[in-house]
Write a structure and sequence with these properties.
The chain is mostly helical and about 100 residues long. Helix content is about 65%, strand content about 0%. The radius of gyration is 16 Å and the shape is elongated. InterPro entries: UCP019883.
Length: about 100
């Protein structure tokens, strides 16, 4: 896979991972929960999935060559980008009104 394709794959993984906590009622999309998820649980999932997305990026970087050392600035910028990518899922989950079954 080319470097450009690797970048697009990492961005797609980040987009899906950022929105997954808001569109899925399961914990990390695997563990079923008895009730609905709280905002704190969803934010904790966002943090965990952020590091999963970073890990995917590091795997692609290692495959191409040596992994470049990253400072706190890298994690601050990518964390902010991850939160921006999570906004559509947050909007769908918390800001849009959902019908509670039945027809109009």
């Amino acid at each position: 896979m080319s470097q450009a394709a690797s970048v697009w794959v990492v961005l797609l993984v980040a987009l899906v991972a950022a929105n997954l906590p808001f569109v899925n009622g399961r914990l990390l999309a695997v563990v079923p929960l008895s009730g609905s998820k709280s905002l704190a649980t969803r934010l904790a999932e966002v943090v965990v999935l952020y590091f999963v997305a970073i890990g995917v990026g590091l795997l692609f970087e290692r495959r191409v060559g040596q992994i470049a050392p990253q400072g706190w600035e890298f994690y601050a910028v990518t964390g902010a980008l991850f939160l921006v990518l999570a906004f559509p899922g947050f909007t769908w989950c918390y800001l849009l009104k959902h019908r509670k079954g039945g027809h109009a």
